Amino acid sequence: MKRLEKKHSLAIRWFHWVNFPVLFVMIWSGILIYWANDVYRIGIGSWTLFKFFPPAFYEKFSLAFRLADGMAWHFVFAWIFGINGLLYVLYLLFSGEWRQLFPRRETLREAIQVVLHDLRIRKTPLPRAKFNGAQRIAYTGVIVMGFGSLLTGLAIYKPVQTAGILPFLSLSLWGATGYEISRFVHFWLTIGFCGFFLIHVAQVVKAGWNNFRSMITGYEIVPAETEPPVEAPAAATRI
Amino acid sequence: MNPENEADAPVEAETEAEAPVFQAVVDEKNDGEIEAQMRRMSRRSFLWALAAGAGTVGGLKWIGSRRADDGIPWPLRRVLDVNGEIARDVFSTARLAPTFPASKAREPRVNGDIGMGEDFDLASWNLGVSGLHSGEDLQLSLAEIKKLPRVEMTTELKCIEGWSVIVTWAGVRLADFMAKYPPATQSGDAPDVRQKPDDLVPYVGAQTPDGAYFVGLDREAALHPQTLLCYEMNGEPLTLAHGAPLRLVTPVKYGIKYLKRLGSLEFTARRPEDYWAQRGYDWYSGH
Fold first, then answer.
1. Residue A228 included in any domain
2. Does A8 lie at the interface with B, CB-CB under 8 angstroms?
3. What angle do CA B233, B237, B239 make, to 5 degrees?
4. Is the confidence metric ipTM above 0.90 for this complex?
5. Nearest CB to B166: which of A4, A79, A177?
6. Quick one: B161 and B260 in the same domain?
7. What is the pLDDT of residues B79-111, one digit of tens each?
8. What is the C-alpha to C-alpha distance for residues B102 and B109, in angstroms, rounded to an integer?
9. Residue B161 has pLDDT above 50, yes or no
10. Which of A36, A236, B266, B274 is geometrically suited to a Cys-Cys bond with B205, CB 3.0 to 4.6 A?
11. CATH label of the domain that carries residue B93
12. CB-CB under 8 Å, A183 with B162
């Protein structure tokens, strides 16, 4: 016997999916901007493992010579990114859903078990919860990253007006100013978002259709015998 | 919802009478009902998702295909201008760009030669000034401008391309210049640059002598205490490549507004044309 279980509220689903095109536009326009001063790489000294980005990459996706274009899109869609993110965090706080998402004392231990489970080292199933330890860390981490992107973005966008509230902008350390460091961090956070996206999509594929569908419909089909997840917001709902 | 409408539940099993089997039938029927319910919800939600997705793609394509307004689709241009207006409201001339020890100063790269043609005679240079309250246009020599208090500062030049460099600049404050040569006012009353800056005409336009490069500044940026008419860089008189004899320096804007080889200034009620703003960049470009 099965039953339907409410998993994601309508608000959460909107916040989630609005991010998809917005982040796409932000990362795409961000690359258009980055192209004009594409200085970051992975390497030590004069040895470079990977340069962001190889000329062929810009060429293939026509990303070169479009700085003005990139800035225009970036500073328009930054509004949506910021407002959507702010509403999401406020929703989490006021709905109480942060309890399922933010890390708890036992989260790190749980997360290690999740990783061991995913690597097939732990054989026994994981305890059922809306978000396991690894998810709590990842989903809270991505909020922190988003906040970091907003802050470093603002620091690059209005470095004088924000220098009072972002004191690092007045620094000059190891030959780099706070402004330069902000751009560096802003870039690597974006690479972080891309990494998050890849792992997220892989995990969603692995979790299967029922789980993916719940991010669209809000509901998941679960066997009736299953205990409702620990700290579930509401009992199983039937429409 | 009405379970009788459900066609999925297998019927033949209902003839069985034994209790456990009966239970299984109920479960199965129930499961069928749940699945059908999920299908209905999914259909509705996925149609919504499809519509939202199509709307988003359509919306993005619509924005991208709009008539260009100075190099970018007009909806983007409108938002950039609104961003600029918000920034002007938030802007405070009291907020200073961070300053650094002069020892951190470096030689900036020469990054633009528009308006920097060969046929330029440094000796006969004068700064043309118009849009003054007096109604009279002026031609000022460098010596005349240098009578104003000399200000030196070490700030970070931020290029719109994304690099930056710390430079020591020296010159006179544009605010001091405007106090001495007051711009026209909007009310027509006598100008008071220090006490009633809001009454001054809201823009300043600057051009190279040949008019090939030109920038516009909002009044707030012009009056910012770190906005200079600059004649020295890193302790030396400006070189020709860096804009001798006089250039604009303003750490509250991107480097594109640091016009080199200043030929004329105009105080104006109309937003002046700006070379890079005509080519897709934000007119305000402020920090």
1. no
2. no
3. 85
4. no
5. A177
6. yes
7. 999 999 999 999 999 899 999 999 999 999 999
8. 18
9. yes
10. B266
11. 3.90.420.10
12. yes
